[in-house]
Amino acid sequence: MIIYCLSDIHGYYSAFVDALELIIDQLEKDNTKLVLLGDYIHGGKEDYKVLDKIIKLQYKYGRDKIIALLGNHEEAVCEGRSLISNEYSDEKYINWLMNLPRYYVEDKTIFVHAGIDEEAEDMWKYGTGDYIFTEKYPAELGEFYEDYKIVAGHIGTAEISKNPTFHNIFFDGKSHYYIDSTVQDSGFINILKVYTQKQKYYEVTKNGEFLIEPYKNC
Fold first, then answer.
1. Which domain holds residue 146?
2. Going along 7-65, which residue ranges are E strands?
3. Residue 95 sits in a domain of what CATH number?
4. 217 is a domain residue
5. Which phi and psi (to 5°) does residue 150 adopt?
6. pTM exceeding the 0.85 threshold for the entire prediction
7. 216 in a domain, yes or no?
8. Sequential pLDDT tens for the chain (218 residues)
């Protein structure tokens, strides 16, 4: 299976559309999926446009092909701690948000918004609390259980790399890929391409696909 993965759109509709344009033709193929890791909204005026785009993609291709996960911003809306936009939250969107899963697994790649309880090892599905799936902080690095890889957003790669100018996909050389580009600063959304059976991970850009190497300071 080939999975394209995006995260942390934060209401930046144009950046979301720009990213989708690079991969949308690939979604017509049977062996491809799109996994979105959450934080689609951020209390801005284009939040609903982002949600509408995702919902339309699910309607066209099916929820089994367009998989949208729950992020901490969506969870805050579901719990009444935040609004979808600065003015109001439409009930029909809240119902959609409340049905979003917290993680997705394909072969040995785990997709999640923030992270999992890695100490639970092969019992992580049961040992990870809801808060960890959407709010885990700081980013965990190093070796996880067996050959599993974890793909997450939530924390900007500039913060993880400790390099304020780095917004590309961060790989620790072990088990973790972080893809949050901090779109409000970078102006773009990272695209991760995963060949799940081979465990090959590529960064997709307008200039092509590039195998992701460990961050140089790992």
1. 2-211
2. 32-36
3. 3.60.21.10
4. no
5. -120, 125
6. yes
7. no
8. 999 999 999 999 999 999 999 999 999 999 999 999 999 999 888 999 999 999 999 999 999 999 999 999 999 999 999 888 776 678 889 999 999 999 999 999 999 999 999 999 999 999 999 999 999 999 999 999 999 999 999 999 999 999 999 999 999 999 999 999 999 999 999 999 999 999 999 999 999 999 999 998 75
